[in-house]
Specification:
Blueprint lengths: L14 E5 L7 E5 L20 E3 L7 E5 L3 E6 L2 E6 L5 E6 L7 E3 L2 E8 L2 E11 L5 E8 L3 E8 L7 E9 L2 E8 L2 E9 L6 E5 L2 E5 L3 E6 L6 E4 L9 E3 L4 E6 L2 E7 L6 E4 L2 H6 L2 E6 L2 E6 L3 E8 L2 E9 L9 E2 L3 E5 L4 E6 L5 E6 L9 E2 L3 E5 L5 E5 L3
Antiparallel strand pairs: 1-2, 3-34, 4-5, 5-6, 6-7, 8-9, 9-10, 10-11, 12-13, 13-14, 14-15, 16-17, 17-18, 18-19, 20-21, 21-22, 22-23, 24-25, 25-26, 26-27, 28-29, 29-30, 30-31, 32-33, 33-34
């Protein structure tokens, strides 16, 4: 039959066989010794082979697409830029880094320890994609967790720099005009990276427990407290005029009012029925990767979410879905990645990477890039 091979087994010793096929990884299989006559059928599943693979440092990782068909792999010891086509290393930045990546003004800002002074952290600007250093933009005694620039509404030409610092025992937001601190907001909780944003004439911060809006001068804080702690990245959904926030009890929708308005929590039937889930957003679509293995694609329409399709994966998801214009990629605890069609939820393929992922899969037009907890990084084809 197509895809089959015949193997003669020994009656005295086991038979070791390596089985492969074009585009598939080689699998080593052992057939025990036997004296039985006749044929026996044994099915062997061949996993998809990577287009390329490389190794790196264990632990957390960040994956970022760059111009020129390149990908940046960010880890605690620096950044490696690789060509998407073949994984070739293009440039490397060897520097102890915090998990912070902010693309701004043609470059990327990274947080590194400041030279020999290990108690100083610098937000340094690096040109993309060659990662040449262009000086530092902020220096702190504490790790910088988030940064944002806000153009003032009532003071033309004035820009504020918002910085969240991870002070032991207290995380705080500091707001600067030039080099002068204008105000601060303390008492944040940030087991997950905080999110800073602008909304009309206000600035906002999302920590583990709440979304807070403040005036440009730091006055009139208005907070929406989540029902339980945030579990992952929040997503701005412009179609709904607010943020989707995954929490221990489920995904919550916080809508932002007009200028000088307040933030409010909106109960949505689809979100309430989904329960705890990882979430990712693309335009007016929200994909929920539920803890019960159900994947739901919903669309915001006429003031509420409407289901578009659903599917199931073999094991519960461990990360937010990776999205592209055509595909959804969901990883589970075994390192298996299930790729679905964004249009209808049909199965595109399953990739058995083998190690638990450290970052959300990066889904591109013809391939998917993954980085795992052992330091490995690999690219797999999306099409058969």
């Amino acid at each position: 039959m197509p895809g089959s091979i015949r193997i003669a087994r020994s009656p005295k010793i086991q038979t070791n066989v390596e089985i492969g096929a074009p585009g598939m990884a080689v699998v080593k299989t052992v057939f025990p010794a036997t004296t039985e006559a006749g044929e026996a059928v044994q099915n062997v599943a061949l996993p998809i082979a990577p287009l390329w693979a490389a190794s790196g440092t264990r632990g957390w990782a960040g994956l970022h697409t760059l111009a020129g068909n390149q990908v940046a792999i960010q880890r605690g010891d620096g950044v490696i830029v690789r060509a998407l086509a073949d994984g070739r290393e293009v440039v490397r930045l060897n520097e102890p880094l915090q998990p912070f990546w902010r693309e701004h003004d043609g470059g990327v800002q990274l947080v590194a320890e400041g030279g020999d002074a290990h108690d100083i952290y610098e937000v340094r600007r690096h040109a993309l994609p060659n990662l040449t250093q262009g000086g530092f933009t902020y220096r702190s005694r504490f790790p910088v967790l988030a940064m944002h620039e806000h153009a003032c509404t009532y003071r033309a030409g004035v820009r504020l720099r918002l910085v969240v610092e991870g002070i032991p025992g207290e995380v705080r937001l500091r707001v600067f005009e030039g080099e002068t601190q204008r105000w601060q907001y303390a008492g944040l909780a940030c087991a997950h990276p905080p999110i800073l944003f602008s909304h009309e004439d206000r600035v906002g911060v999302i920590d583990d427990n709440r979304l807070v809006l403040l005036d440009e001068d730091g006055h009139k804080p208005a907070a929406v407290v989540f029902s339980t702690k945030r579990t992952g990245p929040a997503w701005r959904l412009d179609a709904a005029g607010g943020w989707l926030v995954p929490t221990l009890s489920g995904v919550e929708l916080v809508r932002l009012g007009a200028r000088t308005g307040q933030a409010t929590q909106l109960r949505d039937a689809v979100l309430a029925g989904a329960g705890p889930a990882h979430v990712a957003v693309r335009q007016d679509l929200a994909v929920l990767a539920r803890s019960d293995r159900r994947i739901e694609c919903t669309v915001w329409h006429d003031g509420a979410f409407e289901p578009r399709w659903h599917a199931e994966i073999p094991l519960p998801p461990t990360l937010a879905p990776g999205l592209s214009a055509d595909h959804v990629a969901i990883a589970d605890d075994t390192g298996r990645v299930t790729v679905l069609s964004l249009a209808n939820g049909s199965l595109v393929r399953r990739i058995a990477h083998g190690n638990r992922l450290a970052a959300v899969p990066l889904v591109l037009a013809d391939r998917i890039v993954v980085a795992d907890m052992t330091g490995g990084v690999a690219a797999y084809p999306l099409k058969r």
